[in-house]
């Protein structure tokens, strides 16, 4: 009996330790992501929320030519001039270069999303990763796109944030949105969003 109790204590300690090493987003992070995701769902009105699934952890930065499971820096690079122009034209003094650097440094590892309270249902990123890309429509019938998000990158004063949201389908298709958010008196708002589609 004593051996069995010791075994359960060791297992319970390992589970708690594993959970402690997996970073969890803050309440502010989740609020920023909630606003960004609601904005994205509004941008892509042709895709009903019930045809989308949100991966349960954030996407990390990568330099590989693939659409799903990581944020290809080249997509961000391709949109740099467009987003920089939009930011320059805004009157709120947002520094896009600093936001981009904060986004990249924050997303070298994945973060658990937790409950975002969005209209998009969550799905295990690990489960989706196990399915070959051409088989996603068979494993998840009726789902048009899987959404991945980054953890927000923040300005040094914490008043602006940058989030990248990408959607990928069962085949070689996808889209992405760079979302710039600002914290105003009523909460977080989206003054700038730039998209790409493949």
Structure report:
With 198 residues, the chain is α/β, with parallel strands linked by helices. It has one domain (24-197). It has helices at residues 2-21, 27-43, 73-89, 96-106, 125-130, 136-139; strands spanning 52-55, 60-62, 70-72, 121-123, 145-149, 153-154, 160-168, 174-184, 187-197. It starts with a helix and ends with a strand.
Helix count? 6
Overall strand count? 9
* Helicity range: 25-40%
Assembly classification: single chain
Q: First CA to last CA: what distance?
A: 60 Å
**What is the structural class?**
alpha/beta
- The biggest beta sheet, please? 7 strands, mixed
Residue runs with pLDDT of under 50 for 5 or more positions: 3-20
Strand content: 25-35%
Domains counted in the coordinates: how many?
Answer: 1
Average pLDDT reading:
83
Structural shape = globular
Spell out the helices and strands N to C.
HHEEEHHEHHEEEEE
- Radius of gyration computed on alpha carbons: 18 Å
Task: Explain the layout of strands and helices.
Layout (H helix, E strand, L loop, with lengths): L1 H20 L5 H17 L8 E4 L4 E3 L7 E3 H17 L6 H11 L14 E3 L1 H6 L5 H4 L5 E5 L3 E2 L5 E9 L5 E11 L2 E11 L1
Parallel strand pairs: 1-4, 1-5, 2-3
Antiparallel strand pairs: 5-7, 6-7, 7-8, 8-9
Features:
38% helix; alpha/beta; two-stranded parallel sheet; single chain
Explain briefly what this protein structure is.
Helix content is 38%, strand content 26%. By secondary structure, the protein is of the alpha/beta class.
């Amino acid at each position: 009996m004593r051996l069995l109790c010791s075994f359960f204590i060791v297992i319970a300690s390992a589970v708690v330790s594993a959970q402690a090493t997996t970073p969890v987003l803050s309440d502010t992070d989740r609020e920023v992501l909630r606003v960004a995701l609601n904005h994205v769902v509004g941008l892509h009105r042709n895709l009903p929320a019930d045809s989308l699934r949100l991966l349960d952890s954030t996407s990390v930065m990568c330099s590989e030519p693939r659409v799903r499971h990581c944020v290809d820096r080249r997509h961000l690079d391709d949109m740099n001039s467009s987003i920089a122009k939009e930011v320059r034209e805004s009157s709120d003094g947002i520094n896009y270069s600093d936001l981009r650097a904060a986004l990249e440094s924050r997303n070298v590892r994945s973060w658990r999303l937790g409950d975002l309270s969005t209209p998009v249902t969550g799905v295990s990123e690990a489960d989706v990763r196990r399915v070959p890309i051409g088989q996603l429509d068979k494993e998840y019938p009726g789902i048009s796109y899987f959404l991945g998000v980054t953890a927000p990158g923040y300005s040094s004063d914490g008043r602006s944030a940058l989030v990248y949201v990408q959607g990928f389908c069962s085949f070689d298709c996808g889209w992405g949105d760079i979302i710039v958010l600002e914290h105003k008196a009523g909460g977080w708002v989206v003054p700038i969003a730039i998209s790409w589609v493949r």
